[in-house]
Write a structure and sequence with these properties.
Its EC number is 2.1.1.233. It is an enzyme of class 2 (transferase). Methylates the carboxyl group of the C-terminal leucine residue of protein phosphatase 2A catalytic subunits to form alpha-leucine ester residues. The chain contains 13 helices and nine strands. The protein is α/β, with parallel strands linked by helices. The mean pLDDT is 92. The protein is globular. A nine-stranded mixed β-sheet has the order 3-4-5-2-1-6-7-9-8, with helices on both faces.
Length: 315
């Protein structure tokens, strides 16, 4: 599978998120400046994205609360994610947020930020007297960085992070991957996870991606993606919840939890779920349940100083 095909998945996922935002599933006033409107998505897709976005946010919020925002966020394969702007609005910005992706993706994102004041002004607002630098397909500011790197090259990632003046490898750090590892060969995703575990003594790794891919429904998903030139090269660890956890524990993390998204959905605040379920009529829930069963949220932690485990031990 070529890198261009992987990059195209960012556009598809981003448009799905924008459509769900337009329908009222969650608030994101910034995604409109990064992502153009796309085709209508089915209610099942919208609810699935709601569970994905909200589940990750619950875990991240717990981490930020536990560390009192004295921490770092590294978003691998961030695409057009708007996490920096949303956390600023919520007054929950960590010390640093770093978005990594392919150069072709970061180039577009940096250009959008540069020419759209609602995005750039927010970055400037937390930069004090320091200038926001946007060049070479990267953005650098005291609190927020957009950087390009090949996630198959941990030496490049480490070099990029060490080039950030106030980035601290000893500080609590949370890593986020959304449908990213599944596109890497298993040895390369293991290498990335192992690097994170060995380099950060107090860290959490939050991973959202497919699971139960060996059953009939999973095989149809794989076939459909293959038809779009999206080969899931890292499918092996996606066989079940145990293999999802094992990939982290066997590569240096202390422990891990993995839940099907159906279970995550049930853990979300009842009033919020009730509101969302009234947005669009869903005549039959079978497809939604199948989709939720074939994606999972897995989070692992490395907690040398006993400062992060309580933040993410449960939803």
């Amino acid at each position: 599978m070529g890198d261009e095909a992987v990059q195209s998945t960012n556009d598809d996922a981003s448009q799905c998120k924008r459509f769900a935002v337009q329908k009222g599933y969650w608030k994101d006033p910034y995604i409109q400046y990064l992502v153009r409107s796309g085709d209508r998505r089915a209610p099942e897709i919208n609810r699935g994205y709601f569970a994905r976005v909200r589940g990750i946010k619950v875990l991240l919020d717990q981490f930020l609360e536990k560390t009192k925002c004295s921490c770092q966020v590294v978003n691998f394969g961030a695409g057009f994610d708007t996490l920096f702007w949303k956390l600023k609005d919520e007054n929950k910005l960590p010390d640093i947020i770093v978005d990594f992706d392919f150069r072709a993706v970061t180039s577009r994102k940096c250009q959008y930020v540069k020419v759209r004041p609602p995005l750039l002004d927010q970055v400037k607002a937390v930069s004090g007297s320091e200038a926001v630098q946007i060049e070479n397909a990267e953005l650098h500011s005291p609190k927020y960085h957009i950087m390009w790197a090949d996630l198959r090259n941990t030496s490049q990632i480490e070099s990029k992070l060490r080039g950030i003046d106030n980035f601290d490898f000893s500080k609590p750090t949370v890593f986020i991957t959304e449908c990213v590892l599944v596109y890497l060969q298993p040895d390369k995703s293991s290498e990335l996870i192992k690097w994170a575990a060995e380099s950060f003594a107090n860290s959490v790794f939050i991973n959202y991606e497919q699971v139960h891919m060996s059953d009939k429904f999973g095989q149809v998903m794989v076939s459909n993606l293959r038809g779009r030139r999206c080969e899931l090269e890292g499918i092996a660890p996606c066989q079940d919840l145990d293999t999802q956890k094992l990939r982290f524990v066997s590569n240096g993390f202390d422990d891990a939890v993995a839940l099907e998204m159906g279970e995550v959905y049930r853990y979300l605040p009842a009033d919020e779920v009730h509101r969302v379920e009234r947005l669009e009529f869903l005549d039959e829930t079978e497809l939604l349940n199948q989709l939720l069963q074939h994606y999972c949220l897995c989070w692992a932690w490395k907690d040398k100083d006993q400062i992060v485990t309580e933040a993410v031990i449960a939803l």
